[in-house]
Amino acid sequence: MIKIKRVYDTPSEEDGERILVDRLWPRGVTREKARVVSWLKDLGPGTELRKWFGHDPLRWEEFRKRYERELQEPDKRAILRGLAEKSRGGVVTLVFGAKDELHNNAMVLKHLIDAIAGRAA
After folding, report:
1. Average pLDDT for residues 85-108, to the nearest whole number?
2. pLDDT for 94-105, tens place per residue?
3. Cα gap 69→14, rounded to integer Å
4. SS in 3 state form for 14-72?
5. Is residue 104 part of a domain?
6. Looking at the domain assignment, is residue 121 inside a domain?
7. Pairs from 100-106 (Cβ < 8 Å, separation ≥ 24)
8. How big is the chain by its Cα radius of gyration, in Å?
9. Which residues of 21-53 are buried (b: 16+ CB within 10 A; e: fewer)?
10. How many domains, in total, are found in the chain?
11. Per-residue pLDDT reduced to its tens digit, 37-79
12. How far is CA 27 from the centre of its chain?
């Protein structure tokens, strides 16, 4: 199972393996406080795309399309397949720093990983 959660929210046992998926480390949070097992910064949107999007909900659909194109790179697809496999055996929580819980890169990643794993997103 894939979950998503803000890095600033309190970690819980139900989170399973917590993986940060932002390119930049979130401000004011230590690895210990976040209980992040790994940081997959290469899965975060590229700098140009991240700055263009600026978490503007009006740019969400275009951001999602551009970001999905970025994630077609073979190295990134391999990481996504690995996360899909890992999620079949337990809970994986994709942790992100954005304030907007509906319009962020973790939402796109969850959708893609669920599709790879053969689950409805």
Report:
1. 96
2. 999 999 999 999
3. 31
4. HHCEEEECCCCCCCCCCHHHHCCCEECHHHCCCHHHHHHHCCCHHHHHHHHHHHHHHCC
5. yes
6. no
7. 100/55, 100/57, 101/4, 101/6, 102/57, 103/55, 103/57, 103/60, 103/63, 104/4, 104/55, 105/21, 105/22, 105/43, 105/44, 105/45, 105/67, 106/4, 106/21
8. 13
9. bbbebbeeeeeeebbbeebbeebbbeeebbeeb
10. 1
11. 999 999 999 999 999 999 999 999 999 999 999 999 999 999 9
12. 17
Please give the residue range of the domain that contains residue 32: 2-116
* pTM summary value: 0.93
Q: Say what the pLDDT of residue 120 is.
A: 64
Residue percentage of the chain with pLDDT more than 70? 98
Q: Distances from the Cα of 115 to the Cαs of 40, 81, 111, 119, in angstroms? A: 19, 10, 6, 6
Residue 121 has pLDDT above 90, yes or no: no
Q: Which amino acid is at 30?
A: T
